[in-house]
Specification:
There is one protein chain. The chain is mainly α and 203 residues long. 54% of the residues lie in helices and 3% in strands. The protein has eight helices and three strands. The protein has helices at residues 66-85, 90-102, 106-119, 124-138, 141-154, 159-172, 176-189, 194-199; strands spanning 7-9, 42-43, 88-89. It has a three-stranded mixed sheet with strand order 2-1-3. Helix 1 (66-85) runs antiparallel to helix 2 and helix 5 (141-154) packs antiparallel against helix 6 (159-172).
């Protein structure tokens, strides 16, 4: 298949809000996070990492209303066509993974987000999405922890990564020591967020 001339992503300097990760694709457009219309994005380094199979059939495993099924099919088709024929943004790969996850095709979502993580290694979004997938859907907790930590390493001043890891340690692993340690790490790396992070440690 044909792909665009360059893989490009948005500036790493743009602070992303938590909802920029896996937002609810069923929300009305007015309630979804805004996507930047930036016209001069930075170029992502070329990679030899295998491109995901964009010819993968759209199989809906999740129990979804027909309207949502149609939305997902249309979105997957449109995003895939854009990636194959135009210049593809990092956010296009993230969104494709979101819809693959929505329909319950977790293998496809994982493949897409792993590719995105290679294209944009300094952006924590793909790593957080992979971590959430391993934790909440695939039940692979060692892999989930690995990717939560990769997300923090990629974006040490992105506060969501610490919140997500803290929630994973407290709710899934039941490891209060690791939960406290990750918040202390966040405070050291991002002192501007000290007040918000310390709230998680309050009794």
């Amino acid at each position: 298949f044909a792909v665009g001339p360059k893989w490009i992503k948005k500036s790493d300097n743009e602070m992303k809000a938590p909802l920029d990760l896996e937002y609810d694709v069923n929300l009305p457009d007015a309630e979804k996070p805004a996507v930047s219309e930036e016209k001069t994005p930075s170029v992502v380094s070329e990679t030899n990492y295998p491109v995901p199979n964009l010819d993968r059939p759209i199989v809906i495993y999740s129990d979804l209303p027909e309207e949502t099924r149609k939305l997902a099919r249309d979105k997957i088709t449109a995003i895939t066509r854009k990636i194959q024929t135009e210049v593809a943004f990092f956010d296009d790969w993230i969104e494709l993974g979101n819809y693959r996850k929505l329909v319950g095709d977790y293998d496809a979502a994982l493949e897409v987000w792993q590719y995105a993580s290679v294209l944009g290694p300094a952006d924590p979004v793909s790593f957080n999405n992979i971590a959430n997938l391993y934790s909440g859907y695939l039940g692979d907790y060692p892999k989930a922890e690995e990717y939560y930590l990769k997300a923090i390493k990629a974006g040490p001043t992105h506060i969501y990564g610490y919140f997500a890891a803290f929630e994973f340690y407290t709710s899934v692993l039941k490891d209060d020591k690791k939960a406290e340690d990750i918040i202390r790490q966040g405070i050291a790396a991002f002192p501007q967020a000290k007040a918000e992070l310390e709230q998680l440690l309050a009794p």
